[in-house]
Every structure is written in C-alpha cells, then in structure tokens.
C-alpha cells in the first residue's frame, strides 16, 4: 500500500517536472560578491516564472569541473544551460560539451563569442565600458579639482588571470593616454586579487613609501574600499584623494555616501542574471536570439547615487 | 676534530653536538633578506636610493621608516595568529589544512551577530538576522566565533585521535566542509557593517597587539607547561609518549581544538579589520601559516620548532611582501620567491636532520 | 607469603591461539636479588616479561608484587605499581632532553590548578635527575642535550636512570646492551652493579653469557615456553647454562624457579 502511494507520488512529481522548463547553471565561484548578486538575479527570476526550475552549481574556479557540470546537465536532459565561465579561453570546449542543448554564457565573455552556434548566446555588459567610465570620471574630477597641471596615483589590478581585470586596467591606461587626461601618471600598479584585505595591505605598503598622490583607481569596489580603509587609518583626508571602483556594491555605495569613494560603475549583476535566464528560456523554445545581449554599465557618482541604492 | 670530554665511566661527550639554536639561523636569514632589499634599493637606478626600513625623507622622528615597519608586521599578524596554532599542531606531529576555511566560516558566522542596525541612517543593507541580532555587545560575536573554531577543532581532533584517520585527510575534509559552511551561511552574500565595538578589535594596529599577546602566551605554554612538553613528546615519539602514560588521544584533541580556536580568533580580527565577512575569506591562509612555521624551523616530522621560530618565519614573509612592493615588482615574482623559500626551508631542515643522524 | 619476596608468579601462562608461548611459569624474586633470564629466541623470555609488565594480558595464572596480587591492565598500571622496564626499543622522545625524558608523563609541576597548562618545575626535575644519575653512577656531561644528539650508550643510560630516579620497586631490562659497543656495554654493566649495591631488585634479559655470569645472583633458563632451569650463579658455569638452553639438559621442568 505504502509502496503504491510512493510510486504514484513519484510519477506525479516526475510528470510535473517534465512539463516545466528545466535550466541548469554553472557559476565560476559562489564566494564572489558580484557573481552572488548575479546568481540571486537568476534564482529570483526563475522562481518568479511559472514552471521554470533552475539548478545552480559551483564550479569552484575549476574549468574542468565546469565542463563536467555542463555534461551532467546535458545528460540530465535540461532544456537550457547557463554558464558563467571560469576560464574565458575555454569557450570552445564548453560550447562543444553543451552539444545541441541551448547554452547561455553570462557575465564573462568566452573567446569563441563570435563563432557561437544558433543555440548559444552571450549575456553581459560590455566590459570595455566599465574601466573607461571609471577612469574618465576620475580624470574629470581631478580637472575640476584644479589638478590638470599634473596628478599622480596608483592602479590596483584584479586577479591577473582574469579577463575583466586585464580589460579594465587596459581601459585605464587608454584613458590616461588621451590628450584630455594625459596629465595623470601612475606611480605604480599592482594586483590585490579583487580582495579588500589584500588591497588594505597593498595600499599601506604604498603609503609607507611616502609619495604624494592624488588618485587611486581599483578594478573593483572591494579593492577600492580596502584602499580607503588603509588611507583612513593613515589619517589621509579622503576629500583630497579621488578613489574609483567598479560594481556599485552596497558596501561601496555606503562608502560613497560617507564621501570616501568618488566613482563607481554599476554593472547590473542582477539584470545579467535575469537576462541569462530569459535568454536560455527563449533559446530552449527555439526562438531567435541575438548572439550578444548587452546590459549597459552605468556611472555612479554622489550626484546620482540615490537611484542605485536598492539595485545591487 | 670535534673536541670531546669524558664523563666518569668512559662516556664521551662531543661538544660540537651541542645544539646551535636554529632560531639564530632563521634570524640571520631574515637579516640577509633585509640586506638584499636594502642593497637593491641602492643599486637599482629607478629606486633613487630609497630604503626599505630606514627613513630617507625625514618623515619620521626616528631613523626608521615607521610606516613600513608597521605594515610589514600588520599584514602578516593575522595569518601569524593562525600560524601559532599550526605550529603546535606540527610540533605534535600533525598538520592542519583546515585553518583557512575555519577563518571563512567563523568570520561569516561571527559577523552576522556583530552587525549594526543603521548604516548612514539607513537600515543595514546586508542584515542577516532580524533586529534582535543588531547592535549586540561585541563579546557575543566573539564568543560565537570562537565556538565555531572550537567545534571544528574538536571534530578534527576526534577524527585524528580516535579514528586514526591521517591528519592530512581529516583536516582536508574539514577544509572543504568548513568552506562549504562559509558559503552556505549567507548563500555567498558578504556580511558587512559591524558595530563600532566589534570593529575596534581589528582597528589600527590591534591585530599586531593581539598577535604579540598570543605569541607570548603560546611561547610560555609550549615551553613552560605540561601541555607544551607533551606536545613535543608526542611529535617526537608517539609510542614513547604513550608508554610514558601521556593520554595521547586526549592531548591531540586539545591541540587541534586550540588550533581551531586560534583560526577563529584570526577570523574575528580579520572581519573586524575589513568591516566585512566574505565566504572566500582566509583562502589558502592555511598554506601561508604552515609555510611561516616551516620557514621558522618547525619540523614537519614533528617534535621540533618553537614559537620564536614561527614569529621569525612570519617576519620573513612580511619583509618579502613589503620588499617586493617597495621594489615595485609584480605579485608574480613574490609568489615565485615565496615558493622557493618554503622549499629551501624544508630542504634545509631535512639536511640538518640527516647531518644530526650521521653524527650519532 | 614471605615478606622478602618482590615478585612471585604462579602458573603464569600465555597462549597465542594454539601456540603455548609461556606455560605454567612459577617464579620468585627476592629483595635485592638480581636474576637473569636466558633462553633461545622464542623460548618465552619476552612473553614472560610482557605478562608481568601488563603489555599483554595473560591466559591464566597469578602475579604478586610485594605480597599483593596484581592485575595490570596496561604498562602504565605496572609502572605506577613500581615496575620500571627498560625496553629493547628505547621509549625515549628524541627531541627532549634528559630530565624531560625521565619525567615524561609524571612531570613535577606547580600551579596545578591550571590543569593541562600547569607549569613545569624545571629546577626540581633537574635536581632529581642529577640525583638519579648519581645514584646509578651515570655521568652525562650535559643533561640539557637532546636525546637525538646522544650516543647509543648515553641513551641506554638515560633509560636506565629513569628507573633509579623513581625509586622503582622492580627494574626489568630487556637486552640493555644488545646494540652497544664494548665501552658502552661496560658503562651499562657498571650501572647494574650500582643498582645491586643499593639493593634494587632486577630482572635482566640477556644473551650475553659473560655478562650474566658477571652480574647476577641467579639464572633462569626458558625453553619452549617453560622454565627448565633455576641455577645459582655460584653453583653453575657457562657450559651448564648452555646445555639447558639448547635442551641437552633438563627436559624435566624445574619445580619452583
């Protein structure tokens, strides 16, 4: 008797699952703040949609594991896969692992982005915007502060193996190379691995050299906050230093409200997550989708901070 | 020829075998590394004759570059606290790979009881619990954090002492599980904005003060108490310790528990210093802590090493990190050199062991 | 039971499965007496010692120490009752110095309310160590030296000195000189003579006939798990003992050894 009930129950469960849209997602890492907001965007959006179920896996920064996760999703017969790729140069391998199952890359641009088959797409913000927006605003702030005659500063890089870090730093160099901003010079640039703690130590080490500086540009907000904490500890007047980050995290917005952080760039993590789910569903239904779906970056300064407070 | 003297009954004693304190070697290595950085500061043309430790610009009252001396110690003091626990684990013949993950888990859990209700007049955007957990006295998150480390340490110790799982495996399991706990606790979301009292624990040079206090305490414990003596005995010859009536299993549980608690205390200081707890916190701290101990002359074979040695190993780490930033060299080189020094320290230790064995 | 009996066993037997490693050993040791146990490998000598020191649990039989019946559950029990054993494999911690090893597991301490973190009384232990070394006439120039840096003879001396330091009621030495050179062997033998002169009872397991004849009062010979001979040193000689060891003599079991 019990057994029959169980079987009936199981069949019922399986049949409801069969009608629904089943999606699988593999995220590069669960402990990254930005990716967590993006992941929340995915799960919240999937929950709000009727008949869509989403299973999220942590690739733990291991591309081999990520490819296995994709293959497992394919084997489980999901309707669509979302991948936040660990290693942007492994796009071809991930695309191949997905086979005919619809696949959406989110946030990080795979190197094969221009050769994606019609069942695959890429959802992100255009990385080239972020570093440029950040550095250019710092440049304008410095000019406004009357430092157009020459300004020195530091650049904090994210993980050196990461495409976004490399791109953002390159953007900073490009902006400094422009006629309008070539009064800015870098004293030094170093990596702090996206981490607030490492950024604190790095900034304090820079401070110990005792050189005058006017700005600190960081590849993300966590490092910018670390730099701010180190400068505050050293008694530096935060009004005299221009500090920029990227991401517009809650912590960063609080720092901006306190007058410590001057510039950050809002990358719509939540929107990327939501967009990736929508794109995956569209692909699984056989709809035609652009191979690149861009969700724009937005510059955040004390002037427009209020409209971002509840975003990330 | 080694000078020998005779005891009555014809026993000979070789004076050359008298132990030259290993800490002295490590201290010399530290001085050498500092000298290399100072020399490079003078020789490299782009350095303009800057100095690592000395004040060349008249910024301080003393002849030293006080800011740099502070950061050299500050940047390693939190991992140094973990290294104190790791030191006694290794001396007892074990290893602890879980400390970095315990930092992550303890920081997340402690921080969620340390949050402040209002940030810039707005409700805390990172609130984990309801209003009941806001603005609690700082002692509560501290106790909660320490309990996390204690629990993890007890599990490590019991697994190792009573099920005879090798320490490497047991703590590897804890390393993976505790990191899982850290990520699960808030589903990967960072936990920020602690109370002022909690933040005080990690503010300014407080991490260094905590480190010094704990280093002195553990130096005394390892050298002058029964606990310390039994730790050395177990690492030196576990069978002899057992035959001498030492309750080896119970002692091991205590050793790992203390290591876990030190890791969680490091987590408290780290989260207070950064004003945030994140699930990735403390990543590979266990390896840095083990490396500090090994560079400081703690033998991975167990039985040998000291807190003083580990402190020197920690300073070598700090000098290298600051030295490379001062030379404006990239992190790549820093990692390469760090790896080289760790291997060199182990090779040296093995070589000294062989030499000692050959003499007897 | 007589008052001057240190150790007495009755029908002490140990079977490993079907193997009768020790069979009905009746043994007595008097105060101040030094007895040697001899026999071929596998004759039951070490098995006998392992039953007395609680390292193994006997199959049957009884043991009395100073007239009190004892049932040791482990070697620590035996040690607490006053039986000090110098094992063939030296139970010393290589990285500790002499006093540390002597007092391992029974340290002299102060501030005992600190529990496991009570403080070591280094001074008292050092003094007791020197006293113990003097009692056994062992001279180690620097007792702060770690065992790792000592010769085999010095290590053996430390192990033996442990027994003297704790006023043991019975000392058992299992092949104390097997791994030592001539000079070091001589040193250990001197210590044994010293123990004799201060009246410490001793059981010595040895293969060395000259040593046995030099040192002990009485010789017990084991063969195939049984005591086959109980010989006063003064009434026997090397050839006689060898005859018992090899089985040329004494297939009848000695009554009470």
Summary of the model, kept short:
The complex is a heterotrimer of chains A (312), B (360) and C (257). Chain A is of the alpha/beta class.
Verbal overview:
The complex is a heterotrimer of chains A (312), B (360) and C (257). About 4% of the residues of chain A have low confidence. In chain A, the strands form three sheets. Chain A has a six-stranded parallel sheet with strand order 2-1-3-4-5-11, with helices on both faces. Chain A contains ten helices and twelve strands. Chain A has 312 residues and is an alpha/beta fold. In chain A, helix 3 runs parallel beside helix 4 and helix 5 packs parallel to helix 6. Chain A has two domains: 151 residues, Response regulator (Rossmann fold), CATH 3.40.50; 139 residues, 3-Layer(aba) Sandwich (Rossmann fold), CATH 3.40.50. Helices cover 45% and strands 19% of the residues of chain A. With 360 residues, chain B is mainly alpha-helical. In chain B, 64% of the residues lie in helices and 4% in strands. Chain B contains 13 helices and six strands. In chain B, helix 4 runs antiparallel to helix 5 and helix 8 crosses helix 10. Chain B is flat and about 65 Å long. Chain C has 257 residues and is α/β, with parallel strands linked by helices. Chain C has a domain of 167 residues: P-loop containing nucleotide triphosphate hydrolases (Rossmann fold, 3-Layer(aba) Sandwich). Chain C has eight helices and twelve strands. A six-stranded mixed sheet of chain C has the order 6-9-10-3-11-12, sandwiched between helices. A four-stranded antiparallel sheet of chain C has the order 2-1-4-5, with helices on one face. A two-stranded antiparallel sheet of chain C has the order 7-8. In chain C, strand 4 and strand 5 form a beta hairpin. In chain C, helix 4 packs across helix 5. The longest helix of chain C has 16 residues. At the A-B interface, helix 2, strand 7, helix 7, helix 8 and helix 9 of A face helix 2, helix 10 and helix 12 of B.
């Amino acid at each position: 008797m019990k057994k029959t009930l169980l079987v009936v129950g199981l069949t019922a469960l399986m049949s409801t699952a069969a009608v629904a849209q089943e999606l699988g997602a593999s995220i590069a890492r669960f402990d990254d703040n930005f990716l967590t907001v993006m992941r929340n965007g995915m799960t919240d959006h999937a929950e709000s949609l009727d008949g869509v179920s989403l299973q999220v896996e942590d690739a733990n920064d291991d591309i081999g594991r990520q490819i296995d996760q994709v293959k497992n999703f394919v084997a489980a017969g999901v309707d669509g896969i979302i991948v936040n790729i660990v290693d942007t140069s492994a796009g071809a391998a991930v695309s191949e692992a997905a086979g005919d199952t619809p696949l959406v890359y989110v946030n990080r641009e795979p190197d094969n982005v221009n050769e994606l088959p019609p069942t695959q797409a890429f959802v992100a913000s255009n990385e080239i915007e972020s570093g440029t927006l950040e550095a250019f605003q710092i440049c304008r702030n410095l000019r406004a502060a009357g430092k157009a005659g020459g300004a020195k500063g530091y650049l904090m890089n994210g993980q050196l193996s990461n495409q976004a870090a490399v791109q953002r730093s390159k953007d900073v160099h490009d902006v400094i190379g422009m006629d309008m901003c070539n009064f800015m010079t870098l004293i030094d640039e170093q990596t702090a691995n996206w981490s607030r703690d490492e950024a604190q130590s790095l900034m304090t080490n820079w401070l110990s050299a005792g050189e005058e500086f006017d700005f600190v540009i960081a590849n993300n907000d966590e490092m910018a906050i670390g730099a701010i904490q180190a400068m505050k500890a050293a008694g530096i007047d935060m009004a005299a230093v221009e500090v920029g980050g990227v991401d517009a995290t809650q912590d960063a917005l609080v720092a901006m409200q306190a007058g410590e952080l001057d510039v950050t760039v809002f990358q719509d993590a939540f929107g990327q997550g939501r967009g990736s789910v929508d794109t995956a569903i569209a692909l699984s239904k056989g709809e035609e989708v652009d191979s690149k779906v861009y969700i724009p970056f937005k510059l955040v300064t004390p002037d427009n901070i209020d409209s971002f407070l509840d975003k990330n | 020829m080694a000078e020998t003297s005779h005891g009555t009954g014809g026993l000979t004693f070789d004076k050359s075998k008298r132990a030259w304190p290993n800490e002295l070697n490590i201290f010399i290595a530290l001085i050498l590394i500092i000298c290399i950085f100072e020399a490079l500061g003078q020789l490299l043309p782009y350095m303009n004759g800057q100095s690592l430790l000395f004040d060349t610009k008249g910024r301080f009252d003393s002849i030293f570059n006080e800011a740099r001396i502070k950061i050299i110690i500050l940047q390693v003091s939190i991992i140094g606290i973990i290294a104190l626990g790791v030191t006694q684990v290794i001396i007892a013949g074990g290893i602890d790979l879980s400390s970095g993950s315990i930092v992550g888990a303890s920081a997340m859990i402690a921080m969620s009881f340390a949050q402040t209700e209002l940030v810039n007049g707005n409700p805390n955007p990172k609130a984990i619990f309801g209003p009941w957990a806001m603005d609690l006295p700082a002692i509560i998150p501290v106790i909660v954090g320490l309990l996390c480390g204690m629990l993890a340490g007890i599990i490590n110790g019991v697994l190792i002492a009573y099920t005879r799982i090798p320490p490497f495996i047991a703590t590897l399991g804890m390393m993976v599980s505790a990191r899982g706990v850290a990520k699960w606790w808030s589903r990967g979301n960072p936990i920020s904005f602690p109370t002022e009292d909690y933040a005080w624990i990690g503010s300014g040079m407080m991490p260094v003060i905590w480190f010094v206090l704990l280093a002195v305490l553990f130096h005394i414990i390892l050298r002058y108490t029964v606990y310390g003596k039994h730790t050395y005995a177990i690492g030196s010859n576990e069978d002899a310790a057992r035959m001498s009536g030492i309750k080896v299993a119970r002692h091991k549980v205590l050793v790992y528990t203390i290591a876990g608690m030190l890791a969680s205390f490091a987590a408290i200081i780290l989260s207070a210093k950064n004003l945030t707890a994140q699930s990735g916190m403390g990543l590979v701290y266990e390896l840095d802590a083990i490396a500090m101990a090994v560079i400081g002359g703690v033998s991975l074979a167990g039985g040998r090493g000291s807190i003083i040695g580990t402190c020197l190993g920690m300073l070598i780490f700090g000098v290298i990190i600051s030295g490379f930033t001062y030379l404006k060299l990239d992190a790549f080189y820093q990692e390469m050199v760090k790896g080289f020094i760790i291997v060199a320290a182990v090779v040296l230790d093995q070589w000294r062991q062989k030499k000692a064995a050959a003499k007897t | 039971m007589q008052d001057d009996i240190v150790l007495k066993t009755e029908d002490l037997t140990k079977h490993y499965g079907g193997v009768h490693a020790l069979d009905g050993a009746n043994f007595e040791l008097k105060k101040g007496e030094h007895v040697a146990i001899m026999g071929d490998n596998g004759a039951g000598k070490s098995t006998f010692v392992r039953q007395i020191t609680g390292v193994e649990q006997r199959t049957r039989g009884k043991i009395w120490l100073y007239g009190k019946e004892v049932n040791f559950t482990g070697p620590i029990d035996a040690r607490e009752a006053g039986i000090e054993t110098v094992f063939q494999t030296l139970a010393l911690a290589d990285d500790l110095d002499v006093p540390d090893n002597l007092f391992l597991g029974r340290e002299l301490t102060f501030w005992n309310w600190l529990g496991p973190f009570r403080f070591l009384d280094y001074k008292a232990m050092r003094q007791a160590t020197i006293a113990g070394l003097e009692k056994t006439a062992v001279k180690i120039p620097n007792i702060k030296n770690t065992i790792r840096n000592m010769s085999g003879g010095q290590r053996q001396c430390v192990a033996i000195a442990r027994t003297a330091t704790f006023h043991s009621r019975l000392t058992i030495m299992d092949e104390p000189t097997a791994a030592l050179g001539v000079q070091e062997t001589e040193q250990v033998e001197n210590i044994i003579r010293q123990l004799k002169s201060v009246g410490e009872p001793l059981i010595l397991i040895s293969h060395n006939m000259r040593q046995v004849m030099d040192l002990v009062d009485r010789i017990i010979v084991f063969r195939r798990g049984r005591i086959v001979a109980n010989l006063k040193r003064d009434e026997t000689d090397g050839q006689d003992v060898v005859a018992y060891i090899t089985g040329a003599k004494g297939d009848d079991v000695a009554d009470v050894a």
